[in-house]
Specification:
Elements lengths: L1 H10 L2 H33 L7 E5 L3 H8 L10 E2 H8 L4 E13 L2 E6 L2 H5 L1 E2 L3 E2 L2 E4 L7 E4 L1 H7 L6 E2 L2 E2 L14 E7 L9 E5 H8 L3 H8 L4 H8 L4 E2 L1 E6 L5 H9 L6 E4 L1 H11 L1 H32 L1 H9 L4 H42 L10 H31 L1
Parallel strand pairs: 4-12, 8-11
Antiparallel strand pairs: 1-14, 1-15, 2-13, 3-4, 3-10, 3-14, 5-6, 7-11, 8-12, 9-11
């Protein structure tokens, strides 16, 4: 009955209450959005790559190596000799190695030259490997495997012929149109940069960049058909490579060996450590967004307080009648507080529902354009904490008009 009385009291002032609810809903929306997107982005960053002990590239900073090898952002400072890769991969402590060659693109999407070990050993999330939606891994020189977003965005299917371009721009005038590639596989969505990349063999990358190399090698040494792909199109340089070790205990030992490699300057980084450094750099932005959303909430609460104070002057007759029928001052204090809690609760529901609906609508857009896979389900322990925080802050803000009513009731 007490809650029903507070709700009816609010409905009598629905104009001002409606505007207050809208203001608080926007603040709750912003508060929950910042926390949810921050949490989802952090999880997405840390699940981009897993099960990989070391990433090796030319001598550079750890963040730069991580960004261009895993997130396909930026460019390497230099390439690595193929002989260096084979030497490191032959280390008895190394279980497997995934070489990568970057530098080409297709309509703005990065092309990754690699081997079939990429599909076998590359993992993300909780050591989930890459799965095929349709098709198979590349087998021939001019086969290409598409990430899910590439296939969806460009409407490509198995058997489609595509032309790669030199460089990373969406528009390129340097096309490798003499050697088109054929789509032989499309990967399932992974929520990682793999979704927005094209995977070709290292032999294919070498074939389009050094078209005269096979003829030269054949003149030097005639080969059988079975040897041709492996030898004629063997790369001279690669961009980076990923290592899985037989024992985690050997990680730092192998890292030190690579960092002190005598033939050429190399950098070996631990992906987990580099990801933590990257997230720490983003903490300033994260805290700034939290501060902004908190200030929006404070502004909405001040608006609620002003609305409640204004309503107290208009409700002197109502307060007088309640006192006549025997309502004690504490009853009036709690009534004002409960009205504010009603406003807060309704605002939380509207803000949370609005955020969930917005994320459902924007999911595909965020994934396609920013590589962010944000879950539309915002309900978690963190959401509950923020809801309780908003309710508590509302009760604190409503204490000002509630005390005003309490004092006036005691005087009367």
């Amino acid at each position: 009955m007490f809650a029903k009385l507070a709700l009816k009291s609010l409905l009598n002032r629905k104009g001002s209450v409606f505007l207050t609810v809208i203001a608080m809903s926007v603040s709750v929306f912003a508060l929950l959005a910042v926390d949810h997107i921050r949490s989802q982005t952090k999880d997405s960053f840390h699940s981009t790559v897993s099960g990989i002990d070391l990433i090796v590239g030319a001598r550079t900073g750890s963040l730069n190596l991580l960004l261009y090898s895993v997130f396909r952002i930026g460019n390497p400072t230099n390439n690595i000799d193929w002989s260096t890769y084979k030497s490191v991969a032959a280390n008895p402590k190394v279980a497997w190695a995934i070489p990568m060659s970057l530098g080409d693109s297709h309509r703005g999407y990065r092309v990754v030259g690699t081997t079939q070990d990429y599909f076998e050993h590359f993992s993300f999330g909780k050591k989930q490997t890459l799965d095929f939606d349709t098709g198979r891994p590349f087998a021939e020189v001019f086969d290409v495997v598409l990430g899910s977003e590439v296939a969806k965005k460009l409407n490509y299917t198995l058997g489609t012929n595509i032309v790669l371009a030199h460089g990373l721009g969406k528009t390129s005038f340097s096309l490798h149109d003499d050697n088109p590639f054929t789509v032989v596989g499309i990967l399932k969505p992974s929520g990682t940069p793999v979704d927005q990349s094209l995977q070709v063999s290292l032999h294919g990358m070498e074939a389009i960049h050094n078209p005269r190399q096979p003829a030269t090698k054949l003149m030097e040494q005639p080969l059988s058909a079975g040897q041709s792909t492996q030898v004629l199109f063997e790369p001279e340089k690669i961009t980076a490579f990923m290592l899985g070790l037989n024992s985690r205990l050997a990680t730092f030992n192998v890292q030190r060996e690579i960092n002190t490699y005598s033939r050429e300057p190399l950098s070996a980084i631990l992906p987990g450590v580099a990801l933590s450094e990257l997230w720490q750099m983003m903490s300033v932005l994260e805290n700034t967004l939290r501060l902004i959303s908190g200030l929006i909430l404070v502004a909405a609460l001040l608006g609620l307080t002003a609305m409640m104070l204004a309503s107290v002057r208009e409700r002197q007759r109502e307060i007088y009648l309640l006192r006549v029928i025997g309502a004690p001052p504490i009853f009036l204090f709690l009534l004002i507080e409960l009205e504010a809690i009603w406003v807060s609760g309704i605002s939380i529901l509207i803000g949370a529902a609005g955020l969930s609906l917005s994320l459902m609508i924007a999911q595909d857009f965020l994934a396609a354009n920013y590589g962010l896979h944000i879950d539309a389900n915002i309900f978690s322990q963190g959401t509950l904490h923020y809801a309780l925080l908003v309710m508590g802050a509302t009760a604190f803000a409503a204490a000002i008009p509630a005390l005003a009513v309490y004092r006036s009731a005691k005087i009367s």
